[in-house]
What we know:
Blueprint: H1 3-15, H2 24-38, H3 43-50, H4 62-73
Helix pairs in contact: 2-4
Amino acid sequence: MPLAYYNAWRRLQKAACLPENVMPHIIRHEFIGRLFEEKDLNDSQIAILVGDVNVLSLEQYKQLRKEKRQTQDAP
């Protein structure tokens, strides 16, 4: 973790009572996953929200959208 934000992250982590092993990337991963699961946004919109330049970097999350649709279509 770059030192530029290490101390700030630790203060936020402590204030939010997050375990020490929770890192910013984990929170980002969770946020992206929830966008795919819970919101009806297209890939470009999600890429803008999370600051990705290339929508291909979101490929790993597309399965979550498929699972959501299958759940909704189930009787």
